[in-house]
Amino acid sequence: MCSDPLRYIIYHRRPPNLAIGLYIGFILFILSSILCPPLVKAQIRLTSLVPAQTAICVGVTAIPRLECDALVTLYESTDGAHWLDNTNWLTVNATISPCNWHGVVCETGFVGQLLLAGNQLRGPIPHAVAMLTHLTHLQLANNQLRGHVPLVVCDLVTHLQTATLSHNELISDNRKVKACLDLLDPHWAATQNVPPANLRVSDITTHSLTLNWTPILYTGDGGYYEISTATTLTGTFTVYGQTLDKTTDHYQLDNLVPGQTYYIRIRTYTPVLNGAPREVWSEANQMVAVTQATSGKVLVIAYFPADNDLSPYTESILRRFQIGTALNPNVQVVFLADQQGDHNTQIFAITHGIITPTQAVQAQWGSDELNTMDPQVLTWFLQYARSHYPASRTVVALMGHGAGLTPEVPSLPTESAVSAAALTTKLPPALPQGHEHTPGDVTDNGGYLSTLGIAQALAAATDNGANPFDVVFFDQCFQGNLDVLYEMRSSARVFVASPNYAWLVAAYQKYLPEFTPTAAPEAMANAIINLYQASLTDQEPNVIFWVRSADITAIENAVSQLGATLQAATQNGQDSGILAAARNSQYVDTTQCGRGNMKLGPPDELLGANSFARNLLHTFAIGDSLGVHDAADKVVTALTTVHSLARTGNPYIAPTNFWDYTDTLTILAPLRRDLTQREMLAAKIWRASIYTSTVPLNAAWVLTPTLMLPIPGSFATTRDGQWDDFMATWYTNSLRPTIGEWCHYMPPPLVTSDVTETLALTVTPMVNTLQISWSKTSNDAATAYWLLARKTDNRNWMVLATVPLTQTNYTVLQPATGNSYQFSVVAEDETGLVLAKANAATYTAPPPAVDKRIYLPYVQR
Fold first, then answer.
1. Interhelix angle for 375-388 vs 451-461, to 10°?
2. How far apart, in whole angstroms, are the C-alpha atoms of residue 137 and residue 322?
3. Is the model more confident about 463 or about 654?
4. Distance from C-alpha of 758 to C-alpha of 736, rounded to nearest angstrom
5. CB atoms < 10 A from the CB of 662, how many?
6. Distance of CA 578 to CAs 567, 691, 852, Å?
7. DSSP SS3 for 381
8. Does residue 343 sit in helix, strand or coil?
9. pTM for the full model?
10. Distance CA 160, CA 721 (A)
C-alpha cells in the first residue's frame, strides 16, 4: 500500500487530539469540479438513483421510460418472482403496460399509486423508487423489506399523500431518514421486526459471556430474541437459547470452554404479525468474543513507524486494538507508534479494552522522538515487549509502506552532494535515505527499513531463530517476495504477507478475537487473511497469504534449482521460451514511477513464481535434456504449501485497469535480455543490477548518477541460491549497479455502505491557505471524518487528517504555483464502513503573475 506525500501543504495548526475513527471511506467517483479562480465552489450530490435501462421498457409510452425502469428495479430487488401476486409484471405488449401490473396505478401518464402491501416483497428498498416522482400513495406494509432505508426516501416526502411501511424489517441510523420516515408513516419504527442493536459483551469469565443490547421498539405480537453460537469462523451456528420476550436487554452464555473464541448471532422472532399468525425471523446481528483462558497469553507486538503520510491512521489503529482486547481478555497488545512531528514516539500497552501509555521510550533512550527506521530501535522494541509481557503465543505486526526487495544503503547523501534540481523534480520518492520524499521517519532525516534491516532486528529479537515468533504479519506492500521472506525465515513459524498492494485495512479489532493461547500459528494466520480479505471489495484487488518457515526454505531450494536449469537453458540458446513464459506470467505493479504505472505487466520486475513455473511447464517438454520441466514442476509443488486469498477487479485508484493478479510469492523477473542501462532506468528497473552476492559494491543513484552509494550487504537468496546466477547470465548487457526510484503508494480501502449519504464540500482560498468545508453528516453511527487529498495527476488518495464530528472544516497551506489538488471527505463508523462521502473539489494554484509593465529606454543627454 503505497502514496504520494502531501505533507508540505498541510497547515501545521491542525486541531489536537483528532477524533477516534476508522480509516477511509470510498470515494465512488467524481462527477465534476467547478473551478472559478480564485474561488473554488464544488457542491455536487453523488447519487445512484437512476436505474439501469432494461429491454422490457423499450417502447413503453404509458409512463416515462425512467419510471418503467424503476418498477423493474423494484421487482428485481425484492424477489418479484416469489411475490404472492405478480400478475402481468415484466409483461409489455399491445394490451398490457406497466399500468396493468399488479399494484401499479397510473394517473395522467405517471405512476401515481404503488399498492403492494402484504405481497411478500423481500429485500432492500431500492434507490430507484425516488424516480417515481408523481407517486401519491405507497403501500408496502406487511412485507419482508429489510435493511437500511436509503436516504432517497426523503425525495418522496414532497409528493406522497399516504404511505404504509409498517411490519417490515427496516432500520436506519440516519437522522434525516428517520425524520422523513416519521413524516411518511409515523408508526413505522414501532413495528419493524429487526435484530437488537448495540450488541456487546459486558462481562467475560472462564466459562461465561454476558451479552447486552438495545431492545427493539417492536415489542408487541409476542416473540423473543434467539441466541446462537459457533466456535469457528466459518462454522455452523447452533441455537444456544432464547430470551423471555423482546423487552429483554441481556443474556448470559454459561458452561463455555475457557479460552475459546465464540461467534455469537442474535435475531428476533415474532410469531404473529399484525394480528395474523405468521412466523417472522429478522436478519442476525453478530459479534465475536473470547472466554478467559485458565493459563497463557497471546502477545501482539505492533510496530507503526508513521512519521510520514501514514500519521493520521495512528489513533484509529490504536482504537481498533482497544476494541479487540475488550473482546478477548487473553490478548496483550504492545503498540509502538511514531507520528509525524517531534516528541511523539510512544509505546502503549493495551489489554481488556484499556489503553495505557508508557514511559518506556524515554526511560530507555532519554528522548521521546526516535528514528523508527533504525533497525536498532525495532530490535529494542521487540525485545522490550517480549521481556516485559511474557506470553505463550506471540504475533508481530509490522505496519507501514513496506520496502520489499530493496537494498541496504547505510550512507546518507547530503543535500550538498545532490543538485537542487534533482531534489525537487524527481517525484514521487526515491529509495535512498535522506531524500526529502523518501518514505519513512522523515523527522529524523529520512529513511526506510530495508529487508536486511528488518531481518537483522527479527534475528536479534529471536536469538537468531532459536526463539521464533509464532506469526510475523507484514501489514505492508510488496513483502510477499521470496527474497524478503527467505531473509527472515528463521524468525517466525508462520509469515503473513502480500506480494502486491496491501490496503491499509488494519482490521485488528477483528484479528484479535482469533488469537487464543491454544491456537496454532497457522490458525491465527489463516484468520488474518480471511478477515483482511473480507474487509475489502473488488475495487481493492489484492493477494494475501500465509506460509510456514520450513516451507519458505523448500520453495527457495526449488526456485534455486529452477534458476540453475534456466541458466543452462539460456546458455544453450533456449532463451526465447523462457522470455515467453515470463511475459505470459502474472506481474506485480512495481514500476509506479514509469510507463507501467498502475498496470500489471512488463516492465514490472517482480512476477509470480507459480504462474512463471506453470508457463515453463507448457514451454519445455517433459523430460527435456536440461531438466527445466522437472524443476518447474518442483516449484509448483513447493508453492502448494502457500495458503492464499485473492481479490480481482478494477481498482478505484486505476478504474480503467483490471487487476487479475492471483499469484503469491514473487521472484525477480527475466525481462528482455538486451535491455540497455538507459532503458532500465527509463522503465525504473534497477533491482537486477544489484541482485548479487558480491558485496560491498557501489551503486549509482538515479537522481544524481555521479553520486555513488555503497551497498554493504547481499540477500541470503543470492548467497544460498542460484537465481541470481541465472539473472547474471540472462542479461546480455553489462548492468551498472544502480539504485532507482521507489514510488510507493498506500491507498486507503474505501468501502461504502449501500446507503451512503452525500456531503457537500467546498474549497475556498484564503491568504496563503485553503479553507476546506463540508456539510455535517446526519448518520448517528459515524465516529469521525477523514479528510482525503491527492494531486490531480495522481490516482491515489491519501489521508490528510482525521477530524472529529464536531468539526466540519480544515485548513491547509495553498499548493505551490501551478499545482492542482483534489480534496474530499468521508465519514465512517466504528467498523470502517463509509456512511457519508463528499464530492471531490479541485483547487489549482494560479500561475505566476505576468509583469505587464512597459519599460522605456533610458537616454542620457
1. 30
2. 49
3. 463
4. 53
5. 16
6. 10, 19, 63
7. helix
8. coil
9. 0.87
10. 74
